[in-house]
Design goal:
The chain is mostly helical and 89 residues long. The protein has 3 helices and no strands.
Length: 89
């Protein structure tokens, strides 16, 4: 129907189309598909302590946070129980 030139053209398209798509989407990925400020800055991320004193101070800080949250939770539970008992009586 189309002849050998059409077959050569179709073969060229079959080969070049995926290569062209990969080239188009594979170049300048940082500029084309980037979201500004997506990753946090290195100075604002977690810093893992390696020294013994740093590890102990971090553990103390975490313990203090945990105890504060526990105290708030217990206080909220006590207030909730006191208000609930007063309504029933």
């Amino acid at each position: 129907m189309g002849g050998p030139n059409l077959e050569v053209f179709k073969f060229g398209m079959y080969i070049m189309f995926p290569i062209a798509i990969m080239y188009y989407f594979g170049t300048n990925l940082d500029r084309r598909f980037s979201v500004p400020d997506f990753w946090p800055a290195p100075d604002t991320t977690h810093k893992i302590p390696f020294e013994r004193d740093d590890i102990n101070s971090e553990l103390e800080r975490l313990k203090h946070q945990r105890l504060q949250r526990r105290a708030k939770r217990l206080e909220a539970q006590e207030q909730g129980q006191d208000g609930g008992q007063g309504d029933r009586a």
